Request: fold
Amino acid sequence: MLDHAIPTVFFNGEYLPKPSVHLSPDDRGFLFGDGVYEVVRSYGGRFFALAEHLERLHRGLCELRIRGVDAAEFGDIARELLDRNGMATDDALVYIQVTRGAAPRRHAFPPEQTSPTTYATAMPFQPKGDPAVGVKVITLADTRWTRCDIKSVNLLPNCLANQRAQEAGAVEAVFVRDGAVLEATASSFLGVFDGTIRTAPKSNYILPSITRDVVLDLCREADIPVLEMPILEHELIAAEELFLAGTTLEVMPVVEVDGRPVGDGRPGPMHRRLYDLFRQRVNSG
Ligand SMILES: Cc1ncc(COP(=O)(O)O)c(C=O)c1O
Reply:
């Protein structure tokens, strides 16, 4: 990262200094949260699972019926942003957002010719926890909509829940719906019960997390049993280990839930195994 440099961002087809970006107050992302986003991690300048992130972006655009944007083009844009911001060999995050564009406010879609708004920016990666120590989480009722499989910029319930977590001295809030502990505000949720990894199956109630996919794939490769079945709230107390998984948290042990320790309150052996496998996958990818 260039010290004190003004970031260069991508906005509607151009690379611009960030202060030169002017967003219309009619943008449907601003008015309605009508858009999708992605966050991609680079390790020493090498993107991890970039194709999977862009595929999910493509799927989100299709689900929202936002046309005229080729999600795959963000691969080159992400690389260019690292280069232009002096992060070509850094640990970084690239944030990508597409909205339905700017048009006078009405709920139904704007005219066909309305161009989507595209934006991407690179930032230095800052870890949110230490995997050797683990993190605390709280549980909260899931107040989100029933299309959590879309990575929509409409994140108000996630923001409110994450704020509650911060106020409780926790890193994440995990959402509970009908007694099932589904996922956290910005990460997936997994547990170990009788040596088996358990996590909620993919559905409209969770984001199809790329890190979750990687972890489950690593488990299958290593013959670690996996059960895609939700962890129930009343079972949390009996978990041998719990983890969060996500682009920014990687595989992070949860050592406390709602003030109660998980196991002996320290990261466990399954986490260490999976974390090592995860880092090997990153290094080989
Ligand atoms: C609600 C939610 N679940 C899970 C995740 C983890 O997804 P990924 O592993 O693709 O980063 C995220 C990431 O932002 C998220 O927002």
